[in-house]
Every structure is written in C-alpha cells, then in structure tokens.
Design goal:
about 280 residues; single chain; 10 helices; TIM Barrel; alpha/beta; about 10% strand; 7 strands
Amino acid sequence: MADTGTSGPTRRAALTLLGAAGLAVLGADGALHGTAHADRVRQAANAGRPAQHLKPTPTPKPSPVATPRPASWTQERLTLVKAPIRDIFKDVSPPAPPNSIALTIDDGPHPTWTPQVLDVLAEFEVHATFFQIGEQIQEWPKLTRRVVAAGHQICNHTQTHPIPFDHVRGKRLRKEVIEPFHRVADVTGVVPTLFRAPGGAWSKPSLELIAEHGMLPVDWAVDPTDWSRPGVGHIRRTMLSAKAGNVLLCHDGGGDRSQTVAALRAVIPKLKKRGLNFVAL
C-alpha cells in the first residue's frame, strides 16, 4: 500500500470546525472518550458479548446512537477537508495529549486474527481504532461488537475494499461509503465518524462524500506493509520507528496475519516503555 496523504492550507481550519462533532476526544491508554462514547460502548456491549463460537448467528440490532450535526455545518464547511489525518498533533484540533500515538487496524473483522489482535491489545491495556469492511461486518457481526465492547473505536473502511479506490465513482462510490456507514451503526449502535480509503487512494468525490456524512478521512504515518507478510522483523523495526503524534497502520484481515500479531506483541511494550501512550481516535 502506498501512502498518498497530502497537506493542504485549509486542513487544520476544517478539522477545527469538524472536530467537535466528527472526531472523539483523544485520551491516554485505556481511557474512553467522554460520557457519550462510554454510553455507546456500554450499549454495544449489552447488545453482544465476545463470541464463543466463530460461526455467526442471528443477533438483535441496537438502535444507532447518532451525533447530531451542528447547524453551522454548511456544505461549504463540510467540503473544506482536502487531506486525510496522518498526525494526531498537527492534523486534528484539539491535538492529542503529549507523547500520544494512534494504532489503527484495517480489513477485519476476521474470525482468526481479530480475536488474537484483541487479546494482545487487552494484555497491554491498549485501545486502537479499527477500520472494518462492510462485507466482513455482515459475516461476523459478533466480532465487530466485541471490538466495540472492548472500548476500541470502530470506523468505516468501505463495503468491499475496492482497489484502486480513487477510480471508484458515482453509484458505486456511494455504495462503498454509505452501506458500511449504516452497517456499523446497525450492528454496534455506534455511528462511525472516521473513514479510511483502501490503499490510501483518495479522490475529491470520496472526500466530499464522507464529509457529507459527518466522517473525517484518516491515513497513516507509519506503514510496516504487514499486509504483504514481509516478516516479523520488518514489521517490528518499522513500527519501532514511530514517533509521538504518528498514526500507525496494521491489519487484522485480508490474509494470514500471524506476523502482525507477533510483531504487535513485541512492539507495543517497547513503545510504551519509551513513554508513548496509545490512543484511539
């Protein structure tokens, strides 16, 4: 995957306007993001517990908890966002607490790897941000609820993960953005406020569409290319290059993620020992 995020002069101003409604307040390790977010987590937890069996079964759908848009959210303001978030100090307002980094997990849920990633995060008391695919959520809804019940942020990563995403237009684009938006809400009771384009391939229509639905675009600053299975050592070394403010990219779906699980188990305690605090976006 290539990192295609760019900077723009209006980005910080736009995020300042959108931040209050579109992005949860960032907190330190293990901290939930305010009363509203905690209520959403409790609601999702009450709707479903961690699955004891991997095969999905019919489950009740909780009512989504939407964050109302302020009256000041004009179309002009919604479309000001031109570039995705890569740094949680520079690209969001208010910025994250000092020494914070954000771990993001893409392409799940997966019945084998998502539980293993969740176990590692629980072991080290770290909260992360999961960008999940609509089709995967449909097949494994209990796993998605388990992610939310554990206090992690759940976000939109398209319906089918089309590549290249920046070539998707029209009705197909709306389907890829809007269907998983509603699916996350139906399954968890949480309305997603963040969106990640597959491969970081953004386009003006996609940025405008996600803004219209109250979501902010998120990229990454550290990419160990774990999706390509380059080896635990490569993944570990790349992630250990992370600095305060960085958004880190990993995967719990799309293939064998045993290398990712092993690398996370080694990297998280080392980064914490350096004084870095993991926050969910």
